[in-house]
Each structure stands twice: as C-alpha cells, then as structure tokens.
Design brief:
Blueprint (H helix, E strand, L loop, with lengths): L1 H19 L59 H4 L49
C-alpha cells in the first residue's frame, strides 16, 4: 500500500513540477498577424448580366436620395375596444378548451367541395403529379 501511495505522490509531484516549469513564450502570439486569403467565388449565371443593365450603369453610384422621400403619417393601430366587435362575447384568447367539443380539428381526408369547377381554370393537359 505504501509503494502505491509513494508512486502516486511522485507522479502528482512531477505533474505539478512540469506545470510550474513549463516553457512560457516571452511574446504572446498575435492572432491579427495571420494573413487571411479570401477567395471570391465565381458564379456563372449562364448569361451576361451587363446586357440587362442600363448603359453606363454604376452599382456604386447613388441615383436616389432616400432621405428626400416624404412619408405619410398613418393613423394609429386600431385599439382593442374597436376590435372586440368582431369577436364573440365570451372570447378569451388564453382560455384552455373546457371539453373535447372546444377543440377545432380539421381532418386531412375531408373532401372540400367548391362552388365552381376548378378544371375550367387549368390548362387542358394539366397534371398535378407530372414532373417537369
């Protein structure tokens, strides 16, 4: 038992001595001295964008001063009292449903019937499942 204790004590002592005597550089490393090379990615759009810009277009020229725009003042937002006329009399947005009937559930398998024929507004060869 004493051999294990002595070995452990020596090992811990060596670790402490190593930490105390560790080499410390005289000058700290300056992270700002690292040169960062920024690579510009070339994007090929498949067409020349200059064909679609006005002649003499300069993206760095300010063509319009946004500070010259005069904004119209809007009336304030509607107050809560004004909106209450659109809600049921006993409406409480934070109330928990008291029963199962209070939960609105929409079944995805329910058929929705519309008052008009949707096919009249679609192309003749329209297929919703066909991939382009």
């Amino acid at each position: 038992m004493s051999f294990k204790r002595a070995t452990l004590s020596i090992a811990i002592g060596l670790l402490f001595a190593n930490g105390i005597l560790a080499h410390r550089p005289e000058k700290e490393f300056d992270i700002n001295s690292i040169t960062y090379i920024e690579e510009e990615a070339q994007v090929d759009l498949g067409f020349d964008t200059a064909d679609y810009l006005p002649e003499g277009f300069d993206p760095y020229t300010i063509y319009f001063d946004l500070n010259s725009v005069s904004y119209m003042e809007e009336e304030g937002l509607p107050q809560l009292e004004e909106l209450k006329i659109y809600l049921p009399a006993d409406f409480d947005a934070y109330a928990d449903p008291s029963s199962v009937e209070g939960i609105n559930y929409m079944d995805s398998s329910d058929d929705i019937e519309m008052d008009f024929e949707t096919a009249e507004y679609l192309p003749e060869s329209f297929n919703v499942y066909q991939r382009k």
